[in-house]
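Researcher: Here's my situation. A collaborator sent me these components and asked whether they could plausibly form a single complex. I don't have experimental data yet, so a predicted model of the whole assembly would be a useful starting point for our discussion.
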Amino acid sequence: MFRSHVLVCGGTGCIATGSENIINALNEEIKKAGLENEVGVVRTGCFGLCSLGPVMMVHPEGCFYSAVDVKDIPEIVSEHLLKGRIVERLLYRETVEDGGIKSLNNTAFYKKQFRIALRNCGVINPESIDEYIGVDGYQALGNVLTSMSPEQVIQIVLDSGLRGRGGGGFPTGRKWDLARKLVPDADQKFVCCNADEGDPGAFMDRSILEGDPHALIEAMAIAGYAIGATMGYIYIRAEYPIAVKRLEIAIQQAKDYGLLGEDIFGSGFNFDLEIRLGAGAFVCGEETALMISIEGNRGEPRPRPPFPAEKGLFGKPTILNNVETYANIPQIILKGAEWFTSIGTEKSKGTKVFALGGKINNTGLVEIPMGMSLREVVYEIGGGIPDGKKFKAAQTGGPSGGCISVENLDIPIDYDNLISIGSMMGSGGLIVMDEDNCMVDIAKFFLEFTVDESCGKCTPCRIGTKRLFEMLEDITAGNGTMEDLDEMVELCEYIKNNSLCGLGQTAPNPVLSTYHYFKDEYIQHVRDKKCAAGICTELTQYIISADKCVGCTLCKKVCPVDAIVGEVKQKHVIDQSKCVKCGVCVDACKKFGAITKG
Amino acid sequence: MINIKINGKECSAAEGLTILEVARENGINIPTLCWLKDINEIGACRICVVEMKGWKALVPACVRRLSKFDEGVEILTQSPAVLESRKMTLQLMLSDHDKKCLSCVRSFNCELQTLCKELGVDNAVRFDGAVNASEIDDSSLHMYRDNSKCISCRRCVAACEKQDVGVIGANDRGFKTSIACAFDMPLANTSCVSCGQCINVCPTGALSEKDDTKEVWDALNDPEKVVVVQTAPAVRAALGEAFGFAMGTPVEGKMAEALRKLGFNYVFDTNFGADLTIMEEANELLERVQNNGVLPMITSCSPGWIRYCEAYHPEMLPNLSSCKSPQQMNGAITKTYWAGKMNIDPANIVSVSVMPCVAKKFELSRRGQSGQGTFNDVDISITTRELARMIEKAGIRFVDLPDGEFDSPLGNGTGAAIIFGATGGVMEAALRTAVWKLTGEDVNSTIEFKEVRGVDGVKTATYNVGNMDVTVAVASGLGNAKALLEKVKSGEMKVHFIEIMACPGGCVNGGGQIIVPSSVRNFTDIRAERAKALYSLDEANTVSRKSHESPDVKQVYAEFLEKPGSHKAHEILHTNYKATNLRK
Amino acid sequence: MKTLAELQAIKEKMVGQMNVREGDKSVRVVVGMATCGIAAGARPVLQTFSEVVQKNNLSDVAVTQTGCIGLCQFEPIVEITKPGEEKVTYINMDADKAREVAEQHLMRGIIIAEYTVNNSTLVK
């Protein structure tokens, strides 16, 4: 029995910055100090503040240490864990208050968050089913199996208004209801989980899997009971090794406890789960492609209808929800639909997890109630833009989404509002851009991703996105014409209307959305052959101001391609035909500021 | 039935039908490209898109089935959005397509070309940009793959899967997606069975048979050579299509005349080889039955099937009849018996076959040649398509040709031989002779065994012949063959004699036949239409409808082979098989 | 698992243990854990308090350490603060006394006066 718990983040982010070494060092030092029976070290899931990693929380004091180094561990043990003296220099600065520490939950990053899906991340040991049970785990499944009919379960999910967190926002309860009713005589049905998170920058599902895998298992069993399925598959990308490992452990623990398997809670309900590893193709996040991949074939979407609720995995009625959607289910069952509907907006209930990235101070994972404005997310939770730069846009929905510009900073974030401004919720990547970002380049970046990830089955996506990408290449290289812009829009609309699956149908969104909000930038690239942000190298020139140049030769010395000519104490000039626009000369000339990008 | 509106017109539709089918019933043709009924229903090319009110994107009419939820839906098949989309799809395809139509083997018979014309593609180079580089795969003996003409419709992939061969599929992804063998292996290194069904379904010139017409022209122009030709039964059921005859029009006489006009010295008929095959095969079957040999015995006429058996079901090799195919028998007799009779050095004979088949190009080089290393039974095998091209090139006015005759012997066949070209035909021919052999009834014995006719994938029947019940089974299409073999292997099905043809419907639908565009084949059963031609020729045969009554066959046995199954017959007309280790 | 009771049993076992991680506790037990306190035997005292609190699922109680309180000769020292009540300081604690205090003071609200610091002790 431990008087003190040290929770060390074992999410991928913190592991990448060395939290495994921290845990080892902690265990070692604790043993040296003879505290092994007094202090417990717990490897948890992600806390969300990934930019500060490795992070740890020491209870009962609630001290949150950030950017901890292995070298700090002896001090933490001998001072804090043994003598009760908090190591102030390691405290997350936001938690330091006059004369004491404030709870992490009261910091700007956490205060406005509302954690349902992430509630156990950073709180429990994901490899301990007992800890999950200790925080009401499997209680929802127990209640469902012992006192509710499948119809009642579906009704609660329907009443909760929960919508799919994977992107489309289809009502989860409706999906379940269809799968229950559409093929009444089905001999088998399946429950699938999409854990093939593939949007660039999005990692909310990974964090849930790493931090709270039992929540997913519990929810899938509940879903199985609701639709009448006895078998479930979790399709998870192989690039998530920690998540896979924890999920495997969790499934085994659930089986050992009889929470998976036969006659769960004596109800006669059987349910089993298996993991299927995806090879990392983005398109396998599309539901039909995902199922075809589980079946062992090349992951390519097929036309719908028939929808999976009618003909899904192995031709049987199947539901597919993503990890975050499932993570809401046990809480909805336990706390009721009314509780859930009290959070969020009229048509978007509950919370949404976002992965904050890009030009923002607090990069990491946040869960906010639906309806919060982007301004609050960026400036309050996210801590604003670094280096005092100006907010330009935020990108949501990844390669399927679009951007939110300054004029929409105060729109409440929910499914329908995002669609109405040309973006989408997507799985929750939220990338912030500042004045240094070129929006044409951003569109090109996302489109390049889609071009690469297209499965190649249908013509619009296979060839259309490639041609669209080539148009953007021309525009950013200064080879675009005004007619090209019209052709670009026409091609975008064509791809949207004609592609086989969601990947293709949404692929032009980053282009259309940036074109809508930043048309001037496109025109500037085409007509003036200029990129104001200085990102598109072909449209950027470095120029040495003759007035300011003193002929110190520093720039000439650092130029990697010998593009700068000039003798000592003479004015220097850049040979534009040789210049590769690397910009090192600008840094070299900081003292005189004679070189500018234009 | 539900009520819907197509282009503003109310119509009722049966639930479960596709939009395309319902539109067609209402007189509206929706163009397709990747869609092949029952074979490739993947909605990938997007040529068939239509507007469906309430759906945010256009929907593919070929696979979008109507259900009760679609009651009252409005569909537009020719709105500006639809027509512009289809055109743009074609323009995108053209942007990564080798547009050398003038020198393409499929010019005028190219579905992409046809669609471009029909859908008004006025600018073939609207989109320019990167083009996928590809190399021609000419590794196999029977075909080329030129992916610079491939439009990734996947029809070949589906046809190959349907054949249970599955050696081609999509490689890579996105713009770089290409259709080829796994890891871009050469086709020759795979267990491709050479059936050529992929070529038949290719809408463009990406897949084509190896063109061997140059060798034929060279032989015809060589005064030193005696050039003989034989034509398989199914060729005459399809050749006319290349010259505007309706599908199923038999053109036997015009074909023989055209061959003579091309300059062949002797025009033989594979039907003779087919009659010979029946003699040997019926004899082999009786021997197996009487001597507790390996049963069921399986026919060996189809080289695609033989290759499939060797690669995929090697444990069934002892069940294969040791008889060579009719092509090889005809060739072997030509260069042995006939050469001797005519006093021609076999080395001076160029033996050409015209086949509905590309696997025959591969079969030429199989083991068991009667020349034992000095000559091959047949030297060049060309397809129905290649013959049509030769006739075109020579300027022969095929339509106006009078009916010509074949040379004899080796140029005449019975009605039993002619039906070899349709699934069940070999079986029926064998039964006609087996009844005679077992019962001794020479006249009025049963001629027609209709249970084994027709296009069903697997057919079975039991006949009481003499004192025994003979159970027979017929499969065409290797997917069907597999299903049948699994039942035989598991013991679920007890059967004495099996006919298997690699191509669905048999040789009439062989991989070397005239290519029928999907706009026709999706709504017409090629197999049934062409088979009709053969059965009509069977009925009309003036010599006999039974192989053992063929005067040419009788003559060859009398003068040369002695009797069916003789030592000499074995040397010249039989062969053996070997399991191949190629995996798919 | 066949019954909800089995689940409940595990949960109860875990809740006490995991309460350490909850913030916002109103009752605080503070054990002096400076060098002097540790030398005088504060560690078993701290451990005992922690155990009793967790076993009995006293979710309201935080057991923490502090540095030197300044009365080194009375170590181990334990301070208990309840909302609305005056701080109670126990001195010269050991594990047995700690268990007694925890069970009486924390669970029943009975202060064990003889262990507490008072003026006479200080004068002495």
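Model: Some features of this prediction you could bring to your collaborator: The mean pLDDT of chain B is 95. The longest helix of chain B spans residues 270-290.
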